Q: What sequence folds into this?
């Protein structure tokens, strides 16, 4: 299927790996120019190499900057002042006891998971509305609706992302600009691997045993009963970034393998 993305430019934050890089690869396959973003220039360059190995015809640019900070965001905006597609994917997560989460840690989570998208959308949405076309996608999480006690801080920020995306969508009325959010479930990224290593160490069990019991204990409601591949989540994001998704706006679209049992 041709998603009509040739000639479009897409910025994907946090795209050194995981869902972000998979999304960039998917967009490049559809003909979009992709702008990779991350804090580490060397890691970002390696990601660009991975992308061009997958899509030799891809046009790739790098925008180095930590979008969890105002200064880092300004650097990205200076490098890419206008885009057709913004994927707010940058995020941080990890388990922690609620009583141990400091004010500084709460602030770090909000800066990374929420304010990064606020700052970038404030800039790019204005330009999209001016020309009457554009796409913004926020990467939320099943945790926004299925809160785990060991990741309350993460869940709170991901719920905020849903509200932010819906609120911005209200500004697009009568245009071909859309703002949506995607809710991935457990996905086999390097970041999740780090979380599983931490949890296995705290619980005193092997990583293998933890993974084996994950869907029979922590995510019993999952219909997929396995970790998603980043590209499986990216497929949905790429569709939402395309002109073919024009009637999907203000939506929280699930890609969590059936963990959430509510009908709406």
A:
């Amino acid at each position: 299927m041709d998603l009509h993305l040739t000639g479009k430019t897409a910025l994907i934050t946090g795209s050194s790996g995981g869902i972000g890089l998979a999304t960039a690869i998917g967009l490049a396959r559809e003909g979009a120019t992709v702008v990779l973003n991350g804090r580490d220039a060397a890691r970002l360059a390696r990601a660009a190499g991975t992308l061009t190995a997958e899509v030799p015809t891809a046009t790739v640019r790098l925008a180095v900057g930590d979008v969890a900070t105002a200064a880092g965001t300004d650097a990205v905006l200076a490098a890419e002042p206008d885009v057709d597609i913004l994927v707010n994917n940058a995020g941080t997560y990890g388990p922690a006891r609620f009583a141990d989460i400091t004010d500084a840690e709460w602030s770090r989570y909000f800066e990374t998971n929420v304010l990064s998208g606020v700052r970038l959308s404030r800039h790019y949405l204005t330009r999209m509305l001016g020309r009457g076309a554009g796409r913004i996608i926020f990467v939320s999480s099943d945790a926004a609706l299925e809160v785990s006690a060991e990741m309350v801080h993460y869940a709170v920020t991901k719920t905020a992302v849903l509200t932010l995306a819906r609120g911005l969508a209200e500004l697009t009325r009568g245009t071909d600009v859309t703002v949506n959010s995607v809710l991935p479930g457990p996905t086999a990224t390097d970041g999740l691997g780090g979380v599983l290593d931490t949890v296995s160490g705290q619980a005193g069990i092997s990583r293998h045993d933890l993974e084996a019991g994950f869907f029979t204990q922590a995510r019993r409601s999952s219909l997929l009963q396995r970790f998603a591949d980043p590209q499986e989540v990216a497929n949905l994001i790429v569709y939402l970034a395309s002109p073919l998704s024009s009637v999907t706006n203000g939506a929280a679209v699930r890609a969590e393998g059936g963990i959430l049992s509510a009908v709406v």
